[in-house]
Amino acid sequence: MIDTFSTLDAFEIVKNSRQWLKNHPASTETSEKTKQEYARELMRLISKSEEYDAKNIWAAICATQKKTTFQKRKVAARDGCSSLIEKMLRSQDEKQRNKDQDAWLLSVRSLNRITTIAKDLHSLLEASKGACPLENPVRKSSKRSMLSSLPHDWREQMLAHLSLTPHKPAFLLAAVTGLRPIEMELGVTLTLSERHMSIRINGAK
Question: Which H or E run contains 197?
């Protein structure tokens, strides 16, 4: 018999966990695939922590120099905890219905631990006010920032280079419409009239 705490204590833990989940529910707008990704990320953060507590998980969240990674980890920790508590509540309900007292108390002990971590993590997130704590974050690379390093006439240079090749029409089409290579592969329909040209692109998304 597992006697870490009494049956009354266990019921109180379940009650508190339900109340926590009521106040901090898992997002209903998040897809099941994203929820699974958050859960995996939360487990990875826990595995990186020196100890299984909110302070060390928070340290693992902040162990990056990329703002996007920090934001992803923050959301994964927040929503992941709520999803995990929801799952663990269902699990302990099932064990309680099956009258498996030892398994029920064991599941409640795990539920108590993750609920405590969720509460402490929430306090840390609130204290940060959503701000990224990174001192020297690496700037996210983007196409726009990479283009700024090119010569001012790079488009004209590309056109001149491609003028005598079979790729010129595709280059001009991409320049006019902004379509991506994969969309060009899927096919583009051009319709000409006396005064207009209509371009139909089969989107890849």
Answer: strand 197-201
Per-residue pLDDT of 64-106, as tens digits, reads: 878 888 888 888 888 888 888 988 999 999 999 998 888 899 8
User: Reduced to 3 states, what is the DSSP secondary structure of residue 139?
Assistant: coil
List C-alpha distances in Å: 43 to 52, 70, 179: 11, 15, 39
Contacts of 1 (CB under 8 A, 6+ apart): 101, 102
Task: Please state, in angstroms and as integers, the Cα–Cα distance from residue 19 to each residue in 7, 16, 28, 161, following that order.
Answer: 18, 5, 17, 66
Q: Would you tell me how many other CB atoms lie within 10 Å of the CB of residue 137?
A: 15
Q: Which residue has the tokens 């309680």?
A: 96
How far does the chain reach from its first CA to its final CA, in angstroms? 56
Q: Please state, as a whole number, how many other Cβ atoms lie within 10 Å of the Cβ of residue 100.
A: 13
Distance of CA 96 to the CA centre of its chain: 33
pLDDT in tens, 127-165: 877 666 656 555 555 566 667 778 888 888 888 888 888
Distance CA 132, CA 19 (A): 29
